[in-house]
Amino acid sequence: MPKTYVFEGNTTNAAIEKGLKELKVSKDSVEVKILDNGKKSFFSILEPRVVKVEITLKDKKDETFKRAEKTVRKVDSEDVKKQMEIIDKFLKEFISKLQEKDVNYKIENKDNFINVEITGENVKHLIGYRGETLNALQNILKAISRRHVAFGAKVIVNIEGYRKQREEILKELANKVSKTVIRTKKSVMLEPMSSFERKIIHEQLQNNDQIKTYSIGNEPHRKLVIDLK
Fold first, then answer.
1. Which of 123, 149, 127, 144 minimizes the C-alpha distance to 194?
2. How far apart are alpha carbons 186 and 79 in whole angstroms?
């Protein structure tokens, strides 16, 4: 099923250009539908104009995923090895400064994805509210490890199996909210989420023939909307 996204702008062209830029696709590879032309009534003419467009990828396979595959193929094994060494050095120093004892970590290269698993009895505070601290640590490791390599591998950090637990919670949330939307015929906007979490909900509902999902807003306050098709 083709994936659909909604974007906003102060003009139709601005909204379309924003969508093409974020999806990293050309105009030839999408279908565009204007949802709201932003025209105001006389009483609201002073309000900012907001145009909404719906962009649907023509190919069944997401173009952004195709680009990701190409990038992964360019990753050199020596670069990945260098990344892992940098991450290992950073984590050794980072963990040595923690007050907690018996904190362990494991770094693995799986299909040019560097997986970092941190375990310990009292390390859950490193996860933070809805994974905020965990994501911050992941961004740091990604930044420092890719600084001196041509095509760095993606870095994924997990603490005490948090990501798997969070994934199950989000899937359950997606199913529950989608049923509410179908019953009430009203869209539901979720709280701001990371791109990782939004993707889980998008994928969970992508085969639901009654529901569509799209994101609005800017990072880090970007929100996901679950709506009727």
1. 127
2. 49
Phi, psi of 175 (to 5 degrees): -65, -40
Q: And the tokens for 93?
A: 């120093």
Beta strands in 112-210 (DSSP E): 113-119, 154-159, 188-189
pLDDT tens across the length of the chain (229 residues): 667 888 888 888 888 888 888 888 887 778 888 887 655 443 444 455 678 888 888 765 544 545 544 444 467 888 999 999 999 999 999 998 888 778 999 999 988 899 999 999 888 889 998 888 999 999 999 999 988 787 788 899 999 999 999 999 999 999 999 999 999 999 999 999 888 899 999 999 999 999 999 988 887 788 999 999 8
Q: How far apart are CA 164 and CA 4, in angstroms?
A: 26
Identity of residue 98: L
CA nearest 203: which of 62, 67, 70, 66? 62
Give CA–CA dist 42/88, Å, rounded: 62
- Is the whole model's pTM more than 0.70, yes or no? no
CA dihedral 201, 139, 114, 63 (to 10 degrees): 50
Q: Is residue 194 classed as helix, strand or coil in its secondary structure? A: coil
| Separation CA 111–CA 71 (nearest Å) | 12
Q: 151: which 2 tokens?
A: 């095509």
DSSP annotation of 146: S
Give which of 63, 66, 43 is closest to 55, Cα–Cα.
Answer: 63
